[in-house]
Amino acid sequence: MKVLVYADVEAGQPAAVARELVTGARALAGPGGRVDLALFGADPSAAADMGVDRILTLPALAAAPYDPAAHAAALSAAIAAAGPDLVLMGYTTAGLDLGPVVAIRHDLGLVSYCQTARAGDGAVETESQIYGGKLIARAATPLPALLLMNVGAFAEAAPAPGQPEVVTLEAAAPQGLRFIDATAPDPDAVDITRADRLLCVGRGIGEADVIEEAQEVAGLMGAELVGSRPVVDAGWLPKERQVGKSGRRVKPALYLALGVSGAPEHIEGMGEAGLIVAVNTDANAPIFDHAHYGATVDLTDFLPAFRAALEGR
Ligand SMILES: Cc1cc2nc3c(=O)[nH]c(=O)nc-3n(C[C@H](O)[C@H](O)[C@H](O)COP(=O)(O)OP(=O)(O)OC[C@H]3O[C@@H](n4cnc5c(N)ncnc54)[C@H](O)[C@@H]3O)c2cc1C
Questions:
Q1: Which pLDDT score, from 0 to 100, does residue 174 have?
Q2: Top mutation candidate among 229, 232, 268, 282 for ligand 1, by most atoms within 8 Å of CB
Q3: How far apart are CA 196 and CA 179, in angstroms?
Q4: Does residue 280 have its Cβ closer than 6 Å to ligand 1?
Q5: Is any ligand 1 atom within 6 A of the Cβ of residue 247?
Q6: In whole angstroms, what is the distance from residue 103 CA to residue 138 CA?
Q7: What is the pTM of this model?
Q8: Under 8 Å between Cβ of 25 and 37
Q9: How far apart are CA 4 and CA 99, in angstroms?
Q10: According to the model, what pLDDT value does residue 132 have?
Q11: Considering 50, 147, 280, 302, which has the largest number of Cβ atoms within 10 A of its Cβ?
Q12: What integer pLDDT is reported at residue 184 of this predicted model?
């Protein structure tokens, strides 16, 4: 199978999601298959270690700010050149911008929110998390098709040194859009998607004062402190520390959830964590359906006891 991956770019480098998609693309392509990378916002050398067979690029866009019309035209050119059975994109801002446009242009079946993808007989079988993860929709979509994959659906590919062929595309410059400004994320802001351990506080903390204690315990654990949406909406933690559907999707080795009920929109962001430990006074809280370990304890009792245990180590 021929698979084309569109690479989101951050700060001139293929984003982590692009490396994840290459993992999935290699599995879907199978032995003897081909994986091409459409890389428009960066120099091809930035993707030399991604383990793809070819890099399809458009030099005019490499140093230019992201422009959806220009990227849609370039991705169309890449699809025309590569003739893929399957196009993989992240369910990201760029994926949302471009996926439906090129799917219509090239008559590709489009499936969104995909958490898994498997090659079937002339089709691709997917599981999509819809309604905030409340429903899993299974689909078998005839090829050629385009999948918008959830961030974190595949593991990030390890660097694979090699010399992929670089193919230079030609695409007409689209008219009508004018780039005005881009706001980069605060470079000092924490990237919780990279943390190995996370301590998450939910509405169960009750008041802002508990944040300080939780922050200290997180420090002792070597963890980043994150929160559910109500905690962020209350202004107790900054937005970049929100986990869930409208926050970040994380996959740490350890996720300790204190006073988090386990709503589908929260689980959507952390359900893939390696080890989930939940502390909640309600034994029927849905978080316990996802946790590997749990304790029905009041977190105001748990925090000082846990802190003392960590300090005593
Ligand atoms: C479109 C959309 C997007 C959303 N995006 C997100 C998102 O990105 N992230 C997110 O988190 N939510 C998101 N939500 C909100 C989500 O539906 C839930 O409302 C939210 O996750 C609940 O947060 P919580 O678990 O902290 O609070 P609650 O649901 O209020 O749960 C608090 C829990 O704390 C427990 N508790 C109370 N006191 C204590 C105590 N002293 N000790 C121990 N446990 C205690 C309670 O038993 C309860 O289980 C979204 C909703 C929508 C509709």
A1: 77
A2: 229
A3: 37
A4: yes
A5: yes
A6: 19
A7: 0.76
A8: no
A9: 12
A10: 65
A11: 147
A12: 75
The alpha-helical segments, DSSP class H, found in 30-119 are: 59-62, 68-82, 93-105
**pLDDT score at 108:** 98
256-295 tens-digit pLDDT: 999 999 998 898 889 889 999 999 999 999 999 999 999 9
Instruction: Please give the distance, rounded to the nearest whole angstrom, from the Cα atom of residue 131 to the centre of ligand 1.
Output: 16
172-202 b/e with 16+ CB inside 10 Å = b?
eeeeeeeeeeeeeeeeeeeebbebebbbbbb
pLDDT at 14 (0 to 100): 94
Q: How far is the CA of 154 from the centre of ligand 1 (A)?
A: 26
pLDDT score recorded for residue 171: 81
Considering the four listed CATH numbers 1.10.390.10, 3.90.1570.10, 3.40.50.620, 3.65.10.10, the one that applies to the domain covering 2-168 is 3.40.50.620
Write b or e for each residue in 43-68: b if 16 or more Cβ atoms lie within 10 A of its Cβ, otherwise e: bbebbbbbbbbbbbbbeebbeeebbe
Q: Tokens in use for 210?
A: 């508990």
DSSP state letter for 45: G
Helix axes of 68-82 and 93-105: crossing angle, nearest 10 degrees:
50
In 143-289, DSSP assigns E strands to 145-149, 165-168, 197-201, 224-227, 254-258, 275-279
Low-confidence ranges of the chain (pLDDT < 50): none
**298 ligand 1 Cβ < 6 A:** yes
Residue pair 99/146 in contact by the 8 Å Cβ criterion: yes
Contact 192 CB / ligand 1 (< 6 Å) = no
Topology match between the domains 2-168 and 192-311: yes
266 Cβ below 6 A of ligand 1: yes
- What does CATH list as the number for 192-311? 3.40.50.1220
Residue 299 CA, closest ligand 1 atom number: 42
Assess whether the C-beta atom of 228 lies below 6 angstroms from ligand 1. Answer: yes
Question: Does residue 239 line the site of ligand 1, with CB under 6 A?
Answer: no
d(Cα 266, Cα 277) in Å, to the nearest integer? Answer: 14
- Ordered by start, the domain boundaries in the chain are 2-168, 192-311
Query: Which pLDDT does position 100 carry in this prediction?
Result: 98
